[in-house]
Design brief:
Blueprint lengths: L6 E4 L5 H8 L3 E3 L9 H7 L5 E4 L7 H6 L5 E4 L9 H7 L2 E3 L6 H16 L2 H9 L20 E5 L3 H14 L2 E5 L6 H4 L4 E3 L2 H7 L2 E4 L13 H6 L5 E4 L8 H9 L5 E4 L10 H4 L4 E3 L8 H19 L16
Parallel strand pairs: 1-2, 1-3, 3-4, 4-5, 6-7, 6-9, 7-8, 9-10, 10-11, 11-12
């Protein structure tokens, strides 16, 4: 094998075609068994590597970087990158990349599906049916809330938030309100009929609240007991953003006490562990972080991560850098 070629680590199992594409450029150590590396194992596997292809499961922080000063780029196969300590990357001149845009529409589809499932009590009624408890019809059996014509609230109005808003406004005639760190331009709001409101108004007026904001120290527990207390008792909450944005303990209690009607969650604090309080209540739809999980979208994510890795290590321009200032050094 050509010793002059850069060495890279593919930290999790990924499409074989993507690994073969990387092998055309690099000496590749891959992980077809999909072993979840501990921090110590990841640190050791990165020794001598110029690049890494990671997923949201691998935490790369200052300690990992300091143990591997030769590392030049980490290409994350995810739009989120809270598993990467970007301040540490910047300080050490290491490039981080992600995979935005390619999963926007797929994630919006799934977020809207989760919201509808919560509103119409789909998971709860399916469990009822599977337990053999459906023996007759009743006028109020699993009555939920309408989606069409309701108020859709969106916390975080980036690409995915706007795609969800478009589905609600154009497909279901929903009134769309949103809160974001910064207000959209009028030409972005107008096609969606979207109205910017403060966070408290968003919580009070939403019939269906969807969370699509990035996870940061500032957004940690952006929805906690105080925020849940502002919501309608008939409202639903959907999270397709990141675990940690919602206080799962507070949400479990609110669902148990029916202080909100239902929730739908694709992400969790400490995942893959799920707080027992969420597993014990019937009025929640739970999925294992699969909002981007279609074959076509996952392939696009893998290919974009590979594009970033190849460009960064062969003198090209990575298409989606997280910290592009590193490239200018």
């Amino acid at each position: 094998m050509d010793a002059e070629r850069p060495r890279v680590l593919v930290a999790r199992a990924v499409f074989p075609e993507t690994v073969e594409r990387l092998r055309a450029h690099f000496e590749v150590e891959d992980n077809p068994g999909d072993v979840l590396f501990t921090k110590a194992q990841l640190t050791e596997r990165l020794r001598g590597k110029a690049g890494a292809f990671t997923t949201g499961s691998e935490r790369v922080d200052a300690q990992v970087l300091d143990a591997n000063p030769q590392l030049r780029v980490v290409a994350n196969m995810a739009v989120g990158y809270n598993n990467l300590d970007i301040d540490a990357f910047n300080t050490r001149g290491v490039l981080a990349t992600n995979t935005p845009d390619v999963l926007t529409e797929t994630t919006a589809d799934f977020g809207f599906a989760l919201m509808m499932a919560a509103a119409r009590r789909m998971a709860e009624s399916e469990h009822f049916l599977r337990r053999g408890e459906w023996t007759r019809w009743r006028y109020d059996m699993f009555t939920g809330s309408d989606v069409h014509g309701a108020t859709l609230g969106i916390l975080g109005m980036g690409r995915i938030g706007q795609a969800i808003a478009r589905r609600g406004a154009l497909g279901f005639g929903m009134r769309v309100i949103y809160h974001n760190r910064s207000r959209l331009a009028p030409e972005q709001e107008a096609p969606l009929g979207a109205h910017y409101v403060d966070k408290a108004t968003l919580l009070r007026e939403s019939d269906h609240l969807v969370l699509v904001l990035p996870y940061t120290a500032q957004s940690h527990h952006a929805i906690g007991a105080a925020e849940l207390a502002l919501m309608k008792s008939t409202a639903t909450l959907t999270n397709v953003a990141r675990g940690g944005i919602v206080d799962d303990v507070a949400l479990g209690q609110a669902l148990r006490e029916r202080r909100i009607a239902a929730a739908a969650l694709d992400v969790f604090e400490g995942e893959p562990a799920v707080h027992p309080g969420l597993l014990e209540v019937p009025n929640v739809v739970l999925t294992p972080h699969i909002a981007s999980a279609t074959v076509a979208t996952r392939r696009r994510m893998a290919e974009l991560a590979a594009d970033n890795l190849i460009a960064a290590l062969t003198g090209g321009v990575p298409p989606t850098p997280v910290n592009p200032q590193v490239l200018r050094r």
